[in-house]
């Protein structure tokens, strides 16, 4: 009898682990695939852009595959002409990308982080933001984008 309960418990544990593995969903942008962060869902997708929102629709994430041969200065100039105010935070390597990170304010309505991610000639621009100024969000490490970049693989 005790063996029966032990076997049933092990079976339920294996099922729970498998359900967790199924929950991680992958997405593709351009030549890259990545794992969607927990609590985020795709709300819109084209060949060049993926829009994600968290489950309570408070935070949004966009990933753009820059098809044009633009340098970082031209990308920044275009964003500023649309109303972005940018402040450079630093450079780093995350996964297979060299990343330049900025904080942004978009028309005093949206705040967050902007990343220009380069891998050879490939370039992705990622924004992760929220409406309204959120001091905790702006001061905490951006685990969602870090997870995306660490999971990013070239197809």
Tell me briefly what this model is:
The protein contains 4 helices and 10 strands, in the order αβββββαββββααβ. The protein has 155 residues and is an alpha+beta fold.
SSE order: HEEEEEHEEEEHHE
For the record, give the distance between the C-alpha atoms at the N and C termini, rounded to a whole number: 51 Å
* Low-pLDDT sequence parts: 1-23
Largest sheet: 7 strands, antiparallel
Strand order of the largest sheet: 3-4-5-9-8-7-6
- Secondary-structure-derived class: alpha+beta
Topology, number of strands: 10
Outline: globular
Average pLDDT, to the nearest integer? 84
- Helices, by number, come to 4
Q: Which range does the strand content fall in?
A: over 45%
Fraction of residues in helices?
A: 25-40%
What's the alpha carbon Rg, rounded to whole Å?
19 Å
Task: Walk me through what this model shows.
With 155 residues, this protein is α+β, with helices and mostly antiparallel strands. Helices cover 30% and strands 45% of the residues. The chain has a seven-stranded antiparallel beta sheet with strand order 3-4-5-9-8-7-6. It has a three-stranded antiparallel beta sheet with strand order 1-2-10. Strand 8 (110-119) and strand 9 form a beta hairpin. The chain is globular. The relative contact order is 0.16.
């Amino acid at each position: 009898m005790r063996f029966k309960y032990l076997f049933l418990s092990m079976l339920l544990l294996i099922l729970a682990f498998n359900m967790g593995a199924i929950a991680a969903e992958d997405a593709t942008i351009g030549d890259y695939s990545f794992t969607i962060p927990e609590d985020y869902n795709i709300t819109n997708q084209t060949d060049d852009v993926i829009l994600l929102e968290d489950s309570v629709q408070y935070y949004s994430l966009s990933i753009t595959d820059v098809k044009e041969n633009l340098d970082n200065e031209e990308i920044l100039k275009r964003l500023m002409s649309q109303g972005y105010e940018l402040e450079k935070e630093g450079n780093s390597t995350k996964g297979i990308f060299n990343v330049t990170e900025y904080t942004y304010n978009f028309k005093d309505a949206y705040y967050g982080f902007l990343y220009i991610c380069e891998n050879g000639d490939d370039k992705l621009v990622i924004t992760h933001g929220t409406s309204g100024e959120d001091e905790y969000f702006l001061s905490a490490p951006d685990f969602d984008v870090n997870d995306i970049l660490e999971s990013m693989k070239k197809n």
